[in-house]
Amino acid sequence: MEIEIFRKFLSGRGLKLTNQRVAVFNEIFAFHGHFEPERLYLKIKDSGTRASRASVYRTLNLLVESGLVEKITRTEKGNVYEHTYGHRHHDHMVCEVCDEIIEFYSEKIENLQDEICRKNNFRGVSHTLEIRGYCGKCGRQR
Predict the structure, then answer these.
(1) For 101-126, what is each residue's pLDDT tens digit?
(2) What's the CATH class of domain 2-83?
(3) pTM value?
């Protein structure tokens, strides 16, 4: 389970799985989608759990380092994250106007990346593809 992976990660760094870290972890993994750190903090605060803003941000950074959460893009509002552990790889399209994030997967793109790595004698271990532009709603308004 993800919480055990996080516990082992923290232990390897000499850190403990505190109640605040558990609260941040649980809130992130209860939600399936993209989130901003500030909204995460406010949601935890509204739930009555005592966790400082700094504690939420530090825990989020630890979750990213552990590989359980990924920073996926930056919008006008700040960084956007999602929990990715156990989920199929996907890429993102980000609207420049409304910051809508659309997930997509393309086997052709994945195969092309593998082919490019092979041709360049390169072993890729991860990648991030982000296409910026205008969603259907905002594109029609332009």
Answers:
(1) 999 999 999 999 999 999 999 999 88
(2) mainly alpha
(3) 0.79
